[in-house]
Task: inverse folding
């Protein structure tokens, strides 16, 4: 007998408050706020591999071939397996691809490859039933598995009862697949995507993390009522802040309802190169740092084999912080002074530190020393101010120049940090520094250096204890104070920052402490004492690998920025990292701020990573669009290979470029299709015309045309 809505034990309503009444309020989202422990989960079996807290993090990717091309797909899957991946997902649009999966599975077995396969399903419940015979795992998207309407129609549900009345359609579509997965011992992923929530969910919950979580819980309720538990969850989004909040909210709901299902982590539109790795590290790394996540995919607009290194590295970084497995990590976490963490994971609010204000007697404009949307401070060396280096050095800082004079641009370093300063006898170097200060670039120098040789209008840098001992007194010539904090300070000492009133705090946790927990403690003490001083994360690195740098920064600093804590970044290179140019470190720093949704200094591209559904060469097309529009700071352009996530992702973009049929694309403005069936060869020009039509176009300056492509961010599913 078929299951009905009345047979399903639905989770209590969140909107009516019934869930709070039965289970109490949300209390925690991770195993331990002060020590890294993996969230305890059940084991979910997927062929020869297992997901869950008792097993290593599973690393996976997705094939980009046409699944119906059996040989090409097998070849790509084998390359991925040889690289080290544990699982590969393939696109299944229809019966042809489902039939091909059977051949692919058999062919791989014959060649000695038992790597499990996951069928990526959208819109097609009957096809999902077919392909379950061939693959070990089925990914279903609650947003379109039943309700595939790609629209933004607004239907108002007056009551919970009205919303629940449509659940019969969900059961009708899902029950046969669940029964088959039970019979064949298949695994399932209930994979919610921020860009493809159903019209029903959008209308009731809105385009929100809560809507994502409730959409997944509804499908899980059906599975649980059918006594099927071999599934995992995912909560993917192109915005790392939305992604982190959604996963934390899901974990919190599972804690209070007594559920223990594993979670698959991923940022849907991460992109390519360092930017793609940065966004993935911000989202995935933040969650792994709290012990959340049992399987990971880093989605890049690159061939799938290139996803392995960042995927594996994020898993390694996460594993190295688990206290139970690493005595040093446990020691560092235990060494952090006790505090009470009061972060609210059910909502996001950014802490905005105070900006420098003009004071009587100031002869330079200090207001530009920090930026309201997030600041980048560049660490520089005295020799960079030698006369022969200065013109190039200004460029490294992102300055425009006219007749040799520097001017701030959209991505110029807000301030610079000098461990030692050129002597006053070096008039050329001092003139170069003065010119930066005159255009509101702050120059931060250790107080002891300024005491030896004063620098007019500098910012004096002192350890907090030293600043307190001097009662904040500045050396000759200095006009503002910057203090350093390393997390070893007592609560009482940190509270005294309020009396010092420095321009900025540079937070650089002592290496004997857990970076994550020491940083959280300092920000908590600031919150407790209403300290509104701007906080810049001072990040020290010794890697000269820019991809590794992006992963490190995204994981360690991004974990703070996703909580809204921090007003910018200063990267100080040590050892091998000193070979990295100021320009590279500056660009990577701005990439961190943009990936954290703080400061936009380049065009944002939301671009899927390509799969068997893609209707054009995604990498080539994205590169063409990037080249033409990469200079439009503050503009977001979605480049989607097909309609699966198209309109949903358009909701987070100004303009959209979506494949609809082979050789043709539709163009969107926000959520609305404004131009249809444009031939591929004309589409980029048509996109430019559309941007101009809405007054968001500006011509790149001649000097910047070559740099437009380097400055753009590309984002992938």
Result:
């Amino acid at each position: 007998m078929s299951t009905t809505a009345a047979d399903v034990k639905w989770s209590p309503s969140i909107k009516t408050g019934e869930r709070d009444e039965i289970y109490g309020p949300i209390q925690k989202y991770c195993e331990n706020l002060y020590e890294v422990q993996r969230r305890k989960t059940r084991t979910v079996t997927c062929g020869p591999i297992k997901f869950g807290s008792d097993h290593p993090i599973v690393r996976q990717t997705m094939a980009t071939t046409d699944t119906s091309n059996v040989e090409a797909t097998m070849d790509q899957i084998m390359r991925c397996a040889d690289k080290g991946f544990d699982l590969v997902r393939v696109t299944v649009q229809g019966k042809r691809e489902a039939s091909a999966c059977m051949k692919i599975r058999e062919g791989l077995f014959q060649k000695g490859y038992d790597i499990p396969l996951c069928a990526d399903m959208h819109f097609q419940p009957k096809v999902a039933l077919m392909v379950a015979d061939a693959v070990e795992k089925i990914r279903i998207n609650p947003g379109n598995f039943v309700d595939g309407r790609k629209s933004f129609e607004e239907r108002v549900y007056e009551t919970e009862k009205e919303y629940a009345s449509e659940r019969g359609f969900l059961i009708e579509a899902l029950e046969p697949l669940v029964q088959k997965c039970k019979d064949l011992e298949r695994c399932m992923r209930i994979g919610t995507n921020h860009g493809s929530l159903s019209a029903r969910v959008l209308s009731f919950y809105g385009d929100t993390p809560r809507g994502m979580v409730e959409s997944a819980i509804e499908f899980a309720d059906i599975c649980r009522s059918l006594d099927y538990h071999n599934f995992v969850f995912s909560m993917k989004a192109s915005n790392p802040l939305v992604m982190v909040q959604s996963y934390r909210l899901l974990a919190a709901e599972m804690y209070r309802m007594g559920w223990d299902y594993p979670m698959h982590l991923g940022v849907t539109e991460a992109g390519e190169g360092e930017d793609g790795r940065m966004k993935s590290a911000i989202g995935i790394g933040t969650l792994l740092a709290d012990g959340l996540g049992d399987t990971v995919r880093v989605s890049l607009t690159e061939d799938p084999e290139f996803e392995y290194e960042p995927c594996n590295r994020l898993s390694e970084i996460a594993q190295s912080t688990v206290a139970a497995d690493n005595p040093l990590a446990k020691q560092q976490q235990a060494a952090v002074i006790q505090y009470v963490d009061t972060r609210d994971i059910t909502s996001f609010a950014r802490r905005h530190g105070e900006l420098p204000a003009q004071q009587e007697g100031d002869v330079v404009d200090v207001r530009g020393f920090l930026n309201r949307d997030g600041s980048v401070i560049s660490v520089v060396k005295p020799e960079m101010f030698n006369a022969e280096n200065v013109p190039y050095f200004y460029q490294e800082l992102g300055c425009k120049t006219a007749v040799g004079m520097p001017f701030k641009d959209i991505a110029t370093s807000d301030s610079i940090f000098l461990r030692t300063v050129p002597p006053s006898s070096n008039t050329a170097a001092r003139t170069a520094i003065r010119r930066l200060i005159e255009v509101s670039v702050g120059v931060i120098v250790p107080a002891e250096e300024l005491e030896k040789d004063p620098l007019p209008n500098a910012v004096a840098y002192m350890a907090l204890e030293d600043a307190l001992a001097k009662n904040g007194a500045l050396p000759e010539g200095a006009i503002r104070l910057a203090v350093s904090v390393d997390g070893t300070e007592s609560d009482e000492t940190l509270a005294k920052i309020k009396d010092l009133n420095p321009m900025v705090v540079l937070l650089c946790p002592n290496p004997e402490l857990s970076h994550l927990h020491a940083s959280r403690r300092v920000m908590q003490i600031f919150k407790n004492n209403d300290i509104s001083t701007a906080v810049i994360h001072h990040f020290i690195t010794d890697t000269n690998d820019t991809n590794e740098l992006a992963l490190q920064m995204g994981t360690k600093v991004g974990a703070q920025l996703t909580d809204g804590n921090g007003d910018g970044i200063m990267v100080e290179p040590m050892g091998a990292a000193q070979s990295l140019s100021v320009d590279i470190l500056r660009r990577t720093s701005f990439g961190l701020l943009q990936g954290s949704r703080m400061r936009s200094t380049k065009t944002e591209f939301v671009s899927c990573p390509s799969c068997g559904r893609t209707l054009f060469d995604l990498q080539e097309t994205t590169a063409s669009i990037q080249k033409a529009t990469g200079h439009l700071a503050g503009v977001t352009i979605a480049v989607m290979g097909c309609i699966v996530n198209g309109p949903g992702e358009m909701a987070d973009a100004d303009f959209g470029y979506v494949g609809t049929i082979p050789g043709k694309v539709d163009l969107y403005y926000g959520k609305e299709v404004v131009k249809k069936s444009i031939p591929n060869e004309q589409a980029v020009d048509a996109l430019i015309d559309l941007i101009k039509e809405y007054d968001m176009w500006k011509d790149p300056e001649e000097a910047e045309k070559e740099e437009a492509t380097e400055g753009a961010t590309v984002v992938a599913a």
Observations:
- The longest helix spans residues 167-184.
- Residues 702-717 have pLDDT under 50 and may be disordered.
- The longest strand covers residues 534-541.
- DSSP finds 26 helices and 26 strands in the chain.
